[in-house]
Specification:
With 91 residues, this protein is an alpha+beta fold. The chain has one domain: TusA-like domain (Translation Initiation Factor IF3, 2-Layer Sandwich). Helices cover 25% and strands 27% of the residues. Strands 1-2-4-3 form a 4-stranded mixed beta sheet, with helices on one face. The relative contact order is 0.21.
Length: 91
């Protein structure tokens, strides 16, 4: 099985998090992708913890200095999948 690599190093910064979350949200439970980035995406981890709490695993495969690779695995469904409001948009 080949794992998808999402290399965002050339993606404009404002497009990165929406692309990463869209990729994650499209995963079936149990699947993962590898995120390749030019810096440690620690703020993204905290955003995942807030918005997808209990539904992901975060595993560093490579930690710099020029390239970070993180395997992000979807481990469960979360409120948005169940049709519940996540509270993020205020709607």
């Amino acid at each position: 099985m080949t794992e998808t690599v999402l290399d965002i190093r050339l993606t404009p910064p404002r497009e990165r998090h929406p692309l990463i979350f869209a990729t994650f949200d499209a995963l079936p439970v149990g699947d993962s992708f590898v995120l390749a980035n030019d810096h440690d995406p620690r703020p993204l981890f905290y955003q995942f913890h807030t918005e997808r709490q209990g539904a992901f695993e975060w595993d560093y495969l490579q930690s710099g200095p020029d390239l970070w690779k993180i395997r992000i695995t979807r481990t469960a469904e979360y409120a948005r999948d169940q049709g519940a409001c996540c509270g993020h948009c205020g709607g």
